């Protein structure tokens, strides 16, 4: 009844249960954090704007991104993945989301930043609809916890209108 | 003599009963594990509600051996979500992030492009020959929850099958020999 194996089993079971409870509480505690991130993005230049040989439009941009995502960090936050997407509608597609830039923020100290960057991924349309097209710039973030539930949200920012002609 | 014979009979019958009880309790453990798994499948709507991260392509977010909980709802797939997808001709599902979405106006079908956070380029090299986009049917679920390290148990067991057999044997022996 009180053999070594029996006691070892009881201790192990108890330890695992406590660990599970603490992980759950840590994940739930994230809900009490009300985040108020701010961000601003400007398209400072259209570097190039062409039609690819396969008929799809492609754009190269320079972006100024400034953001303060420090309020997203809690004690259960491992990292915040942040990305900037262009969102627009075309006659063919009801929604196009194209990621232009992304980054991983490993700690709260790095969550306030100002950068100037060209688009990291090709801004390519499915087809040739980008001339004179107005698109929304949206900053999305994805909070990855140390344990538990992941969460995501975004800020939709002012749009930008692409030029009427290729260059 | 009759007394001894009776005693032997009673011992024999006890052993048979005990054997049956132990067999039933072993069966209960196995079936309850199966019930939990199938119930999870029902609630999450995903054919594999829990996956183990096998590669470092999503580091530092997900490391090898971490566990992800999946959910498959009818919500449309959007950029930034972490999805688990199967590529034709590949057995092992991949966990990567969606970076581009094109959703059709009339049919609502989606073209999705994914990329691992830690990879340099997008996933077109991982897709089947000539495949440019993932469609809805490739996607098994999206990751909603995260638990670190626990997946190492399954990684070790698949890579070193001996440990698995030793563990199952020891557990089986424990159940059969236990007196309580």
Automatic annotation (TrEMBL), chain A:
<comment type="similarity">
    <text>Belongs to the SPCS3 family.</text>
</comment>
<keyword id="KW-0812">Transmembrane</keyword>
<dbReference type="GO" id="GO:0045047">
    <property type="term" value="P:protein targeting to ER"/>
</dbReference>
<comment type="function">
    <text>Essential component of the signal peptidase complex (SPC) which catalyzes the cleavage of N-terminal signal sequences from nascent proteins as they are translocated into the lumen of the endoplasmic reticulum. Essential for the SPC catalytic activity, possibly by stabilizing and positioning the active center of the complex close to the lumenal surface.</text>
</comment>
<dbReference type="GO" id="GO:0005787">
    <property type="term" value="C:signal peptidase complex"/>
</dbReference>
<dbReference type="Pfam" id="PF04573">
    <property type="entry name" value="SPC22"/>
</dbReference>
<dbReference type="GO" id="GO:0006465">
    <property type="term" value="P:signal peptide processing"/>
</dbReference>
<dbReference type="InterPro" id="IPR007653">
    <property type="entry name" value="SPC3"/>
</dbReference>
<keyword id="KW-0735">Signal-anchor</keyword>
<protein>
    <recommendedName>
        <fullName>Signal peptidase complex subunit 3</fullName>
    </recommendedName>
</protein>
<keyword id="KW-0472">Membrane</keyword>
<keyword id="KW-0256">Endoplasmic reticulum</keyword>
<keyword id="KW-1133">Transmembrane helix</keyword>
UniProtKB/TrEMBL annotation, chain B:
<keyword id="KW-1133">Transmembrane helix</keyword>
<dbReference type="InterPro" id="IPR036286">
    <property type="entry name" value="LexA/Signal_pep-like_sf"/>
</dbReference>
<dbReference type="InterPro" id="IPR019533">
    <property type="entry name" value="Peptidase_S26"/>
</dbReference>
<dbReference type="GO" id="GO:0006465">
    <property type="term" value="P:signal peptide processing"/>
</dbReference>
<keyword id="KW-0735">Signal-anchor</keyword>
<dbReference type="InterPro" id="IPR001733">
    <property type="entry name" value="Peptidase_S26B"/>
</dbReference>
<protein>
    <recommendedName>
        <fullName>Signal peptidase complex catalytic subunit SEC11</fullName>
        <ecNumber>3.4.21.89</ecNumber>
    </recommendedName>
</protein>
<comment type="function">
    <text>Catalytic component of the signal peptidase complex (SPC) which catalyzes the cleavage of N-terminal signal sequences from nascent proteins as they are translocated into the lumen of the endoplasmic reticulum. Specifically cleaves N-terminal signal peptides that contain a hydrophobic alpha-helix (h-region) shorter than 18-20 amino acids.</text>
</comment>
<keyword id="KW-0472">Membrane</keyword>
<dbReference type="GO" id="GO:0009003">
    <property type="term" value="F:signal peptidase activity"/>
</dbReference>
<keyword id="KW-0378">Hydrolase</keyword>
<feature type="domain" description="Peptidase S24/S26A/S26B/S26C">
    <location>
        <begin position="37"/>
        <end position="102"/>
    </location>
</feature>
<keyword id="KW-0812">Transmembrane</keyword>
<dbReference type="InterPro" id="IPR015927">
    <property type="entry name" value="Peptidase_S24_S26A/B/C"/>
</dbReference>
<dbReference type="GO" id="GO:0004252">
    <property type="term" value="F:serine-type endopeptidase activity"/>
</dbReference>
<comment type="similarity">
    <text>Belongs to the peptidase S26B family.</text>
</comment>
<dbReference type="GO" id="GO:0005787">
    <property type="term" value="C:signal peptidase complex"/>
</dbReference>
<keyword id="KW-0645">Protease</keyword>
<dbReference type="Pfam" id="PF00717">
    <property type="entry name" value="Peptidase_S24"/>
</dbReference>
